[in-house]
Amino acid sequence: MATTFEPSSVRSGAHQREPLGAAWARVYTLNWEAIAYVIIFVLAVFTRFHELGVRVMSHDESLHTRYSYNLYNEGNFQHTPLMHGPILFHMTALSYFLFGDNDFTGRLYPAVLGVLLVMFPLLFRRWLGRAGALLASIMLLISPLIMYYNRYIRHDTPSIFFTLVMVYCVMMYLNGPLHLRRRARWLYIFAGAMLGNLGSKEVAFIYIAIIGSFLTLYWIVRMIQHYRRVPGKPLLYFITMGVLLGGVVALGMYVVLSIVPPSLLSSAGLNSLEGTSFIGWTAIILTLVVGALVGTGIWAFRGSRVGLRLRDIIIILLIALVACAGLIVAEEMSRVEPGASSETAEVADPAAEGALLGDVASSLPIIVAWVVAGIVVLGVFIGMRRGLFRALYRFPEFDVLVIMGTLILPWMTAIIIALTGASPVDYSSAGITRAVLALIPLAAISIAVGLAWNWKRWLIAATVFHVLFAFFFTTMFTNVNGLATGMVGSLGYWIEQQGVRRGNQPQYYYLLIIMPIYEFLPVIGSVLAMFAGLTRFWRFRRAGLETAALPEAVATTDDEGAALLVAANDAVNEEIEARVLAARSQSYSGWLRGVPFLLLVSWWAVLNAIAYTLAGEKMPWLGTHITLPMIFLTAWYFGGLFERVDWPLFFRRGWVYLPLFLVLLVVAFQVVQPFLMGTLPFGGLQQQQQQALFEWLGMVAAALLVVYLIARVAQHTGGRHLRSMFGVAVFVLLSALTFRAAWMASFINYDYPTEFLVYAHSATAVKTVLNDLEELSMRVTGGRDLRFVYDNETSWPNSWYYRDFPNAVYVGANPTPQQLNDAVAVVVGEANRSKVEPILEDRYFHFDYIRMWWPMQDYFGLTAQRIANTFDFSPSNTQAAEIRRGLFDIWWARDYERYSRAVNGNWRLTTWPVSDRMHFYVRKDVAAQIWDLGAGEGVALATTEETQPNLCVANWQPRSADVVFGPGGGDPLPLNHPLDIAVSEGRVYVADEFNNRIVVYGMDGAYITSIGGIDEETGSALFNRPNGVAIGPDGNLYVADTWNYRIVVLTQDGEVITSWGQPGQFGIEAAPAPFDAFWGPRDVEVDEQGRVYVADTGNKRIRVYSSDGEYIRDIGSGGSADGQLDEPTGLALHPDGRLFVADTWNRRISVFNYDDGQPLYNFPVRGWYDDRGNRPYLALDVERGLLYVGDPEAGRVLVYDTYGNCIGSFGQAGEELPVASQLNVVGGITTDASGNLYASDAQAGRVLRYAPYPSSAMPPAGDNTDAEVTGEVDLESGKMDQTFEDADAAILETAESSPDTIDRDETELDALEDAIGEAVG
Q: What is the pLDDT of residues 731-774, one digit of tens each?
């Protein structure tokens, strides 16, 4: 369970112990380490498997579980780079096969690897040391990111696991025990782990680049050392120190440049807040880094006979400057604008000029690849003849580089294809041919180098790699296309996605948000390790300079120094280390004979953070990759502190330091906190202020008392033990805080977006709805045979959760009445709510939930002003103090209440702003039989009561337009949000809102001309987003110039005759004067006498004018009572004197007598459920007695009779390019003399003409059970009594007995028609 090392004193014969005591001491030491790892293992199993299936599947998790289920259940899976590597799906499918399919088993594979990940540092004990390896396991156990995503079915845990295997193989091959070094097994395992990494996630390319770059640098330095006979250590150390420090500066500058980008800096100037902030922040970063370099050097050289050399500092700083500049340039180049990659992503047309190899420029990268391949293969052949590879055999790192390079090189095919300007994920015949032409030269180089190096080892390693590759990427040899999607598409897809910047997170996302909130222990530990590493470097440099100053006879030989170094690497015993240190004080060896593990991990940590910062996609789970090497650095640093603790002294009395230091750290924070948060203890003489003062003074007193106690203990233990125990206390405190954050994230807030790890995550309501559906199904069908529907927005994660419901119907983005017919339940997202509610109506209970949410995103768009305000400590800026306290509450307890108050935000879970909603509908008649809901939109029907059909839905007609105006009609400018329409004398006039014009078409859809538009020279326009258009009896054109707040009268040729109007926003309290005031007039109509009716939408009224703009009267006023309007838009005039108004926000049609403005009646509209700013219009077919009502967001037209009876509907929401039977967003509608209906599709930019609504589609007389007059029309009120005084008495009796619903047969409808006719003359 632990490796046994015999104390050196026993081997040497010095200080021999009594045999029994020596044996007991050895067993005691070993058992404590073994027991510690057993405890860690048990805790790892608990934290990775406890309640593993409780959390709701996130969006991405449900994709992985569902496709794994398809592989397990149907044998159906094809690799696609969109979902990363295929190994996760195969292993999850295996888990289903062994243990069944559920949320727990879906996460089993990463959880098992998570346990192994925690135990993995035991294998690095040789290089981290005993304490360092143990601390690394502890930190991996309690890491919030690692723990949370070990319990998450994603590819990141497998990727990290295989990376550790790769690093371990490298270290064993190069720096392992002498009898295990350069063993072929490590290369074969490395090849398998490398494929495991590539088959898990494309971040493998980052790992391979980082490890490969370090080994390449190491190899080059070793060759210089060998052939030039100069020590390699100083050269390697100087280069790596410079690059690493430059990388640290670059990371800081990434943050600065994200907050103050160069474009803003150039426009604002250096004297602005942005300029001074840029200069100040840059100076702080440079001061800290240069100070760390110089300060550690001064400390390391104290008391030395030689001084710290300025030349050394300058060399390191110059290397750092070059590295930093290059990394900053790379960062700026990485900011590819979204959409820029779309051009690259287009599939090349083989027939087009330049396709494939027809264009020399586009094919140049492939040609260059072939030329380079020829040169390399020739060079390899010549090198073999001259013994080059035999000479390189002395460098074992070259073996690893050959395996790594030759196996990964063919995967670089995507880069060559991208350089040609084509898409690497083009799988057409031309794309495949291009990929093969780019692949062949790379494969040729790989084969030539591999066989020339060591044909046997290379063939075995390549076989391991490619057999695993073929097995997983082809889905067990069933999908040949997987070879292309894997070797070419894996990197190619993510090259194209770089410009998409998925998540749109800022560059400082990891450095300022994820890492400080969760991984503060590795961050702080890595900074301390940087100082310790710099100090070790300067001590090495000091030893070299001192050795150079000694007489030659004093120094030992290189071989003796090397032997001591090897002994130091193998030793874990303090005595041997002391001997080595003593020897180094007398000698110095700068010869590089092994991979410096600390430098490798440091290289890994810094370049890892840079790579993920530059990557287009930034997600919280990628933080696991950043924190891993930081954990190793922290473990190395604190492990050294633990090794220096005098443990016998600790157990005697030194342990007292630990609680004292912990108390001191907590109390010190309480003392400092008021000054950081802006709540100064010296606030005043009020009772609360005095209480705060005395509490603070109490904390100061407690701190002084603890300091006194520590000083007393130090008198008995000495200063060295004090310093070591302070480091131990810091580690213990940070570990406790880290474990607390991990526990909150993984076991308390795991489903809530208050945690920044809960990203694109399903809300708990997903399982609530699932449980309701299961209960419904069991009670109604006795199993899982319930028929319900769900849409595209809720398909993830519900495609996973609904897999066992055979009658679950997926309706996509366009639910139709036929699909929803007889559905017991409906689950849809917000975008489809307006499409299903007109169909479902009030026959269903409605429940509104949050389906998916994201963390708070107030950190987006940080500016110098926001940061300066937040850290303004002046007492007058109380908001800044409240913001700081709010940020601390978020960090400490994920409590957003104080921050919400400070910024006037709303971060309550019930109304979480960064979320998608889900709507759950259950049929009332079914619910009444099995549930005692007591909630919902209405009262459950009695079990014997049948739901009444809605003819708007039940009589939906599949109709297609016979003429489409707009696209391809000759108009040089496409329609941009067309709205109202008017037809006259063989012409169709369309209000083209966003093009600021009126477009004129012929009846056949041909473009004739346009009126208005934007003048290209001056930029001015006659109209400002016209919404309404009408033709008067005089033949003139009347335009509602909406956002010029006026009505414009023109000839049909576009000559302006007159106009009137001025802006006036009065709302519901609008008075008549000023008589020409409008606020957003949406529609205009003209009656046979030339009177102009204007929907003054914002002022909740209809204004009536003469044809020359003379005010006549207002019709209606703001409100919801009879005769009142709220957001009136579409208008329609009936020759019998009725004015129909689309009373939008009252969701009804209000009917007035347009001669005197008196209200007649109103009726509800079974539509307009979703309000996204599009307003409904009306049209009358007088001959057929039909009123057409637009339902904009539902993409349909409702058909009523003029008395409020819904007859039917047609149209359905379409896709981006809808066909003639679909409407994206219904704009304006009108009819012509023949009864044809014209409807504008505002979103698709077109106008459609439909034949008259067929009489065969109208329900028989007396069967229209949907016809109703709602209770909003009080037939017994004074106004309506007079209107209907001559109506049939039977109708009034029906109204008295049932004011909400009046069922009419044919006789009653005739009576009502006669009464209305007499009332309006």
A: 999 999 999 999 999 999 999 999 999 999 999 999 999 999 99
Residues 1101, 1128: Cα–Cα separation, whole Å: 7
Nearest to 117 by CA among 796, 631, 813: 631
Contact 1248, 1254 (CB under 8 A): no
Backbone φ and ψ of 469, nearest 5°? -60, -50
Whole-angstrom Cα distance, residue 778 to residue 756?
A: 37
Structure tokens at 508: 């400082």
Contact predicate 415/491, CB 8 Å: yes
Tokens of 59: 């969006």
Question: Averaged over 1192-1199, what is the pLDDT?
Answer: 91
Element (H, E) at 1000: strand 997-1002
DSSP-based three-state secondary structure for 810: strand
What is the token pair recorded at 215?
Answer: 């080994």
Question: What whole-number distance in Å separates Cα of residue 101 and Cα of residue 675?
Answer: 55
Label residues 621-643 b or e (16+ Cβ within 10 Å = b): bbbbbbbbbbbbbbbbbbbbbbb
HEC-encoded secondary structure of 112-134: HHHHHHHHHHHHHHHHHHHHHHH
Residue count of the chain = 1321
- What whole-number distance in Å separates Cα of residue 897 and Cα of residue 887? 10
Q: Which residues of 1224-1253 are buried (b: 16+ CB within 10 A; e: fewer)?
A: bbbbbbbbbeeebbbbbbbbbbbbbbbeeb
Partners of 1208 in the beta sheet? 1199
The encoded tokens of residue 594 equal: 């092994």
Residue 144: both structure tokens together: 């919030």
Q: Between the CA of residue 1220 and those of 966, 991, 1211, 1239, 1269, what are the distances in Å?
A: 12, 20, 9, 11, 34
How buried is 904 (Cβ within 10 angstroms: 0-12 exposed, 13-18 middle, 19+ buried)?
A: exposed
| Partners of 789 in beta bridges | 809, 826
**Distance of alpha carbon 604 from alpha carbon 210, whole angstroms:** 6
Q: Kindly report, residue by residue over 409-457, the tens digit of the pLDDT.
A: 999 999 999 898 888 888 888 888 999 999 999 999 999 999 999 999 9
**Mean pLDDT calculated for residue range 948-952:** 70
Strands (E), 1126-1195: 1128-1133, 1138-1143, 1148-1153, 1159-1164, 1178-1181, 1186-1191
Instruction: Give the residue with greater pLDDT, 351 vs 86.
Output: 86
Does 716 score more than 60 pLDDT? yes
CA distance 230 to 222: 9
Asked if residue 528 has pLDDT above 90, the reply is yes
Integer distance in angstroms from the first to the last C-alpha of the chain?
A: 102
- The alpha carbon of 1021 is separated from its chain's Cα centroid by a whole number of angstroms, namely 41
SS3 13: coil
Kindly report the number of other CB atoms within 10 A of residue 282's CB atom.
Answer: 16
Residue in 1223, 1266, 1282 with CA at minimum distance from that of residue 1248 = 1223
DSSP lists the bridge partners of residue 1263 as none
Q: Phi then psi for 735, rounded to 5 degrees?
A: -65, -40
- Distant-in-sequence, close-in-space partners of 1110: CB < 8 Å, separation ≥ 6: none
- Residue 349: pLDDT band (50, 70, 90) is very low
DSSP 8-state class, residue 1021 = B
**CB distance 839 to 817 below 8 Å:** yes
Torsion on CA atoms 1110, 1112, 1117, 1118, rounded to nearest 10 = 0
In sequence order, which ranges of 474-586 are alpha helices (DSSP H)? 482-487, 489-497, 515-518, 520-549, 558-570, 574-586
User: Side chain identity at 1063, as an amino acid letter?
Assistant: P
Closest CA to 501 of 621, 620, 332, 617: 617
